[in-house]
Amino acid sequence: MALKSASRGPIRLRPDVVDDEKLNEFSHSSDYEDEPSNEGSTSGSGETESESEDESDLLEGVAQTSEAGNPDDAGQESSKSALNDISFGVLAEAQERYAPPSKKRKWSQNAADPGAVQEDNDQKSQNRAKDMKKPNKISRTSKHAPTVLSSRQQVSRKRDVFEPSPAIKSRDPRFDPTIMSSTFDKNTVDKANKNYAFLTTYQAVEILDLKAQIKKTKDPELVAALKRKVMSAEAKIRNAEARQRESKIVTEHNQKEREAIRAGQKAKPYYLKPGEIRKQAEEERVASMGKRARDKAEKRKKKREKSKDAKNMPRFRRDG
Protein backbone atom coordinates (compact mmCIF):
# COMPACT_ATOMS: atom_id res chain seq x y z
CA MET A 1 0.00 0.00 0.00
CA ALA A 2 1.27 3.38 -0.93
CA LEU A 3 0.69 6.07 1.61
CA LYS A 4 -0.27 9.50 0.43
CA SER A 5 2.23 12.13 1.46
CA ALA A 6 0.31 15.03 2.85
CA SER A 7 1.17 17.85 5.19
CA ARG A 8 0.51 16.73 8.70
CA GLY A 9 -1.12 19.08 11.10
CA PRO A 10 -0.13 19.72 14.67
CA ILE A 11 0.03 16.63 16.84
CA ARG A 12 -1.82 16.87 20.11
CA LEU A 13 -0.11 15.47 23.15
CA ARG A 14 -1.47 14.57 26.51
CA PRO A 15 -0.89 17.19 29.18
CA ASP A 16 0.49 14.57 31.60
CA VAL A 17 3.20 13.54 29.09
CA VAL A 18 4.46 16.94 27.99
CA ASP A 19 6.02 18.91 30.78
CA ASP A 20 8.63 21.61 31.07
CA GLU A 21 11.06 19.23 32.75
CA LYS A 22 10.68 16.57 29.99
CA LEU A 23 11.42 18.69 26.93
CA ASN A 24 14.78 16.97 26.50
CA GLU A 25 13.12 13.56 25.97
CA PHE A 26 12.28 14.50 22.40
CA SER A 27 15.90 15.12 21.32
CA HIS A 28 15.88 12.13 18.96
CA SER A 29 12.62 13.07 17.28
CA SER A 30 14.12 15.83 15.10
CA ASP A 31 14.09 13.45 12.11
CA TYR A 32 10.29 13.44 12.13
CA GLU A 33 9.85 17.09 11.30
CA ASP A 34 7.14 18.11 8.83
CA GLU A 35 8.15 17.81 5.16
CA PRO A 36 6.27 19.69 2.42
CA SER A 37 4.33 17.43 0.00
CA ASN A 38 4.92 17.44 -3.73
CA GLU A 39 1.21 17.48 -4.54
CA GLY A 40 -0.33 20.87 -4.14
CA SER A 41 2.88 22.60 -3.19
CA THR A 42 1.68 25.92 -4.50
CA SER A 43 -1.53 25.79 -2.54
CA GLY A 44 0.05 24.53 0.71
CA SER A 45 2.93 27.02 0.86
CA GLY A 46 0.85 29.72 2.50
CA GLU A 47 -0.52 27.31 5.04
CA THR A 48 2.98 26.11 6.02
CA GLU A 49 4.22 29.68 6.42
CA SER A 50 1.30 30.53 8.69
CA GLU A 51 1.84 27.33 10.67
CA SER A 52 5.54 28.13 11.12
CA GLU A 53 4.69 31.61 12.39
CA ASP A 54 2.18 30.16 14.84
CA GLU A 55 4.71 27.57 15.99
CA SER A 56 7.39 30.22 16.54
CA ASP A 57 4.93 32.24 18.63
CA LEU A 58 4.12 29.16 20.64
CA LEU A 59 7.83 28.44 21.02
CA GLU A 60 8.47 31.88 22.47
CA GLY A 61 5.55 31.42 24.82
CA VAL A 62 6.88 28.08 25.99
CA ALA A 63 10.30 29.59 26.62
CA GLN A 64 8.79 32.45 28.59
CA THR A 65 6.69 30.11 30.68
CA SER A 66 9.65 27.79 31.31
CA GLU A 67 11.90 30.70 32.35
CA ALA A 68 9.30 32.47 34.46
CA GLY A 69 8.21 29.32 36.30
CA ASN A 70 4.71 28.26 37.45
CA PRO A 71 3.53 30.44 40.28
CA ASP A 72 0.09 28.88 40.58
CA ASP A 73 -2.13 26.13 39.19
CA ALA A 74 -3.87 28.47 36.73
CA GLY A 75 -0.53 29.24 35.08
CA GLN A 76 0.26 25.54 34.86
CA GLU A 77 -3.06 24.78 33.13
CA SER A 78 -2.54 27.60 30.63
CA SER A 79 0.99 26.40 29.81
CA LYS A 80 -0.21 22.81 29.38
CA SER A 81 -3.03 23.92 27.09
CA ALA A 82 -0.49 25.87 25.02
CA LEU A 83 1.81 22.83 24.84
CA ASN A 84 -0.97 20.63 23.50
CA ASP A 85 -0.79 22.30 20.07
CA ILE A 86 3.04 22.02 19.68
CA SER A 87 4.46 19.60 17.12
CA PHE A 88 7.55 17.42 17.53
CA GLY A 89 9.56 19.66 15.22
CA VAL A 90 8.91 22.68 17.43
CA LEU A 91 9.87 20.70 20.53
CA ALA A 92 13.11 19.60 18.87
CA GLU A 93 13.86 23.20 17.91
CA ALA A 94 13.16 24.32 21.47
CA GLN A 95 15.54 21.72 22.78
CA GLU A 96 18.12 22.77 20.22
CA ARG A 97 17.87 26.39 21.27
CA TYR A 98 17.39 26.31 25.06
CA ALA A 99 18.91 23.00 26.18
CA PRO A 100 22.48 23.08 27.64
CA PRO A 101 25.24 21.94 25.24
CA SER A 102 25.93 18.23 25.45
CA LYS A 103 29.37 16.64 25.83
CA LYS A 104 29.21 15.14 22.35
CA ARG A 105 28.60 18.54 20.81
CA LYS A 106 31.46 20.05 22.82
CA TRP A 107 33.74 17.23 21.70
CA SER A 108 32.80 17.72 18.05
CA GLN A 109 33.49 21.46 18.33
CA ASN A 110 36.90 20.80 19.88
CA ALA A 111 37.69 18.24 17.19
CA ALA A 112 36.90 20.84 14.55
CA ASP A 113 39.42 23.21 16.20
CA PRO A 114 42.69 21.31 16.97
CA GLY A 115 44.33 24.45 18.35
CA ALA A 116 41.71 24.72 21.08
CA VAL A 117 42.19 21.02 21.90
CA GLN A 118 45.95 21.52 22.26
CA GLU A 119 45.47 24.56 24.52
CA ASP A 120 43.01 22.62 26.65
CA ASN A 121 45.46 19.71 27.02
CA ASP A 122 48.31 22.08 27.92
CA GLN A 123 46.17 23.77 30.55
CA LYS A 124 45.23 20.40 32.04
CA SER A 125 48.87 19.28 32.16
CA GLN A 126 49.89 22.54 33.87
CA ASN A 127 47.15 22.15 36.46
CA ARG A 128 48.22 18.55 37.04
CA ALA A 129 51.84 19.63 37.51
CA LYS A 130 50.78 22.30 40.01
CA ASP A 131 48.77 19.75 41.97
CA MET A 132 51.77 17.41 42.07
CA LYS A 133 54.06 20.19 43.33
CA LYS A 134 51.71 21.03 46.17
CA PRO A 135 52.68 19.14 49.34
CA ASN A 136 50.11 16.64 50.47
CA LYS A 137 48.38 17.60 53.68
CA ILE A 138 49.12 15.09 56.39
CA SER A 139 45.98 14.18 58.26
CA ARG A 140 45.72 11.95 61.31
CA THR A 141 42.76 10.66 63.24
CA SER A 142 44.43 11.79 66.45
CA LYS A 143 47.74 13.26 67.53
CA HIS A 144 48.82 9.84 68.84
CA ALA A 145 48.10 8.06 65.56
CA PRO A 146 50.92 7.37 63.07
CA THR A 147 51.46 9.72 60.17
CA VAL A 148 49.42 8.93 57.05
CA LEU A 149 51.16 9.38 53.69
CA SER A 150 50.17 8.66 50.12
CA SER A 151 51.55 5.49 48.54
CA ARG A 152 52.54 7.53 45.48
CA GLN A 153 54.91 9.67 47.54
CA GLN A 154 58.35 8.11 48.03
CA VAL A 155 59.33 7.60 51.63
CA SER A 156 62.59 9.26 52.66
CA ARG A 157 65.44 6.83 53.25
CA LYS A 158 66.81 9.04 56.00
CA ARG A 159 65.49 8.35 59.47
CA ASP A 160 65.83 11.31 61.82
CA VAL A 161 65.86 9.39 65.09
CA PHE A 162 67.90 12.02 66.89
CA GLU A 163 68.66 15.51 65.65
CA PRO A 164 71.69 16.97 67.48
CA SER A 165 71.83 20.65 68.20
CA PRO A 166 73.77 22.67 65.63
CA ALA A 167 77.28 23.23 66.97
CA ILE A 168 80.15 25.32 65.69
CA LYS A 169 82.37 23.15 63.50
CA SER A 170 86.01 24.16 63.78
CA ARG A 171 88.27 23.83 60.76
CA ASP A 172 91.92 22.92 61.19
CA PRO A 173 93.99 24.84 58.60
CA ARG A 174 96.58 22.05 58.58
CA PHE A 175 94.04 19.80 56.83
CA ASP A 176 92.49 22.50 54.69
CA PRO A 177 93.31 21.73 51.03
CA THR A 178 93.23 25.42 50.12
CA ILE A 179 96.11 26.05 52.54
CA MET A 180 98.08 22.81 52.74
CA SER A 181 97.83 21.72 49.10
CA SER A 182 101.23 21.38 47.42
CA THR A 183 99.79 22.64 44.12
CA PHE A 184 98.33 25.76 45.70
CA ASP A 185 101.40 27.58 46.97
CA LYS A 186 104.46 26.16 48.69
CA ASN A 187 105.10 29.36 50.60
CA THR A 188 101.75 29.06 52.35
CA VAL A 189 102.59 25.48 53.38
CA ASP A 190 105.89 26.60 54.86
CA LYS A 191 104.21 29.44 56.69
CA ALA A 192 101.58 27.11 58.10
CA ASN A 193 104.23 24.67 59.30
CA LYS A 194 106.11 27.49 61.00
CA ASN A 195 102.98 28.91 62.60
CA TYR A 196 101.91 25.51 63.98
CA ALA A 197 105.35 24.23 64.97
CA PHE A 198 104.33 24.38 68.65
CA LEU A 199 102.07 21.36 68.11
CA THR A 200 105.12 19.09 68.09
CA THR A 201 105.75 19.94 71.73
CA TYR A 202 102.14 19.03 72.54
CA GLN A 203 102.61 15.68 70.77
CA ALA A 204 105.76 15.00 72.80
CA VAL A 205 103.88 15.65 76.05
CA GLU A 206 101.07 13.38 74.85
CA ILE A 207 103.53 10.55 74.21
CA LEU A 208 104.92 10.88 77.75
CA ASP A 209 101.40 10.72 79.21
CA LEU A 210 100.59 7.59 77.18
CA LYS A 211 103.76 5.86 78.36
CA ALA A 212 102.85 6.67 81.97
CA GLN A 213 99.40 5.13 81.45
CA ILE A 214 100.97 2.00 79.98
CA LYS A 215 103.01 1.50 83.18
CA LYS A 216 99.95 1.93 85.42
CA THR A 217 97.39 -0.19 83.53
CA LYS A 218 97.27 -3.99 83.85
CA ASP A 219 94.68 -4.77 81.17
CA PRO A 220 96.57 -6.30 78.19
CA GLU A 221 94.04 -5.05 75.62
CA LEU A 222 94.25 -1.49 76.94
CA VAL A 223 98.05 -1.69 77.03
CA ALA A 224 98.12 -2.81 73.37
CA ALA A 225 95.81 0.06 72.37
CA LEU A 226 97.98 2.60 74.21
CA LYS A 227 101.13 1.22 72.58
CA ARG A 228 99.54 1.63 69.15
CA LYS A 229 98.75 5.25 69.97
CA VAL A 230 102.35 5.86 71.10
CA MET A 231 103.73 4.34 67.90
CA SER A 232 101.38 6.42 65.77
CA ALA A 233 102.33 9.66 67.54
CA GLU A 234 106.07 8.89 67.25
CA ALA A 235 105.68 8.10 63.54
CA LYS A 236 103.91 11.42 62.99
CA ILE A 237 106.74 13.29 64.72
CA ARG A 238 109.38 11.44 62.69
CA ASN A 239 107.59 12.17 59.41
CA ALA A 240 107.24 15.85 60.30
CA GLU A 241 110.95 16.05 61.16
CA ALA A 242 111.89 14.29 57.90
CA ARG A 243 109.81 16.69 55.81
CA GLN A 244 111.28 19.65 57.67
CA ARG A 245 114.82 18.30 57.13
CA GLU A 246 114.23 17.79 53.40
CA SER A 247 112.75 21.26 52.95
CA LYS A 248 115.75 22.74 54.78
CA ILE A 249 118.19 20.91 52.47
CA VAL A 250 116.33 22.15 49.37
CA THR A 251 116.26 25.78 50.54
CA GLU A 252 119.97 25.76 51.41
CA HIS A 253 120.91 24.20 48.06
CA ASN A 254 118.80 26.70 46.08
CA GLN A 255 120.35 29.58 48.00
CA LYS A 256 123.87 28.33 47.16
CA GLU A 257 122.95 28.00 43.48
CA ARG A 258 121.60 31.58 43.38
CA GLU A 259 124.78 32.94 44.96
CA ALA A 260 126.91 31.02 42.44
CA ILE A 261 124.88 32.46 39.54
CA ARG A 262 125.22 36.00 40.94
CA ALA A 263 128.98 35.51 41.33
CA GLY A 264 129.22 34.30 37.73
CA GLN A 265 130.42 30.80 38.62
CA LYS A 266 127.40 29.12 36.94
CA ALA A 267 125.13 30.02 34.06
CA LYS A 268 122.26 27.64 34.97
CA PRO A 269 121.12 26.39 38.39
CA TYR A 270 121.25 22.72 39.33
CA TYR A 271 118.16 21.28 41.03
CA LEU A 272 118.46 18.31 43.36
CA LYS A 273 116.65 15.09 42.47
CA PRO A 274 114.26 13.48 45.00
CA GLY A 275 116.69 10.59 45.58
CA GLU A 276 119.55 12.96 46.32
CA ILE A 277 117.36 14.94 48.72
CA ARG A 278 116.42 11.76 50.63
CA LYS A 279 120.07 10.63 50.76
CA GLN A 280 121.30 13.94 52.20
CA ALA A 281 118.41 13.97 54.68
CA GLU A 282 119.30 10.45 55.87
CA GLU A 283 122.96 11.41 56.30
CA GLU A 284 121.95 14.45 58.30
CA ARG A 285 119.63 12.33 60.46
CA VAL A 286 122.35 9.79 61.25
CA ALA A 287 124.83 12.57 62.05
CA SER A 288 122.39 14.17 64.49
CA MET A 289 121.89 10.86 66.38
CA GLY A 290 123.93 9.86 69.43
CA LYS A 291 126.51 7.04 69.46
CA ARG A 292 124.24 4.50 71.20
CA ALA A 293 121.27 5.26 68.93
CA ARG A 294 123.54 5.10 65.89
CA ASP A 295 124.85 1.65 66.86
CA LYS A 296 121.35 0.40 67.50
CA ALA A 297 120.17 1.66 64.11
CA GLU A 298 123.13 -0.02 62.38
CA LYS A 299 122.31 -3.36 64.03
CA ARG A 300 118.70 -3.14 62.87
CA LYS A 301 119.84 -2.30 59.37
CA LYS A 302 122.21 -5.28 59.22
CA LYS A 303 119.45 -7.57 60.50
CA ARG A 304 117.07 -6.40 57.78
CA GLU A 305 119.66 -6.91 55.08
CA LYS A 306 120.48 -10.41 56.37
CA SER A 307 116.81 -11.47 56.34
CA LYS A 308 116.45 -10.07 52.85
CA ASP A 309 119.42 -12.10 51.61
CA ALA A 310 118.04 -15.23 53.28
CA LYS A 311 114.75 -14.85 51.39
CA ASN A 312 116.58 -14.60 48.09
CA MET A 313 118.70 -17.74 48.77
CA PRO A 314 117.32 -21.04 47.29
CA ARG A 315 115.99 -23.68 49.68
CA PHE A 316 117.90 -26.85 50.52
CA ARG A 317 117.13 -29.80 48.27
CA ARG A 318 116.13 -33.08 49.85
CA ASP A 319 118.19 -36.16 49.08
CA GLY A 320 116.06 -38.70 47.23
TrEMBL record:
GO terms for biological process: maturation of SSU-rRNA from tricistronic rRNA transcript (SSU-rRNA, 5.8S rRNA, LSU-rRNA). Residues 1-179, 253-320 are annotated as: Disordered. The keyword ATP-binding does not apply. InterPro entries: RRP36. Keywords: Coiled coil, Nucleus, Ribonucleoprotein, Ribosome biogenesis, rRNA processing. Residues 13-31, 121-134, 275-286, 306-320 have a biased composition (Basic and acidic residues). Associates with 90S and pre-40S pre-ribosomal particles. Pfam families: RRP36 (PF06102). Component of the 90S pre-ribosome involved in the maturation of rRNAs. Required for early cleavages of the pre-RNAs in the 40S ribosomal subunit maturation pathway. This is rRNA biogenesis protein RRP36.
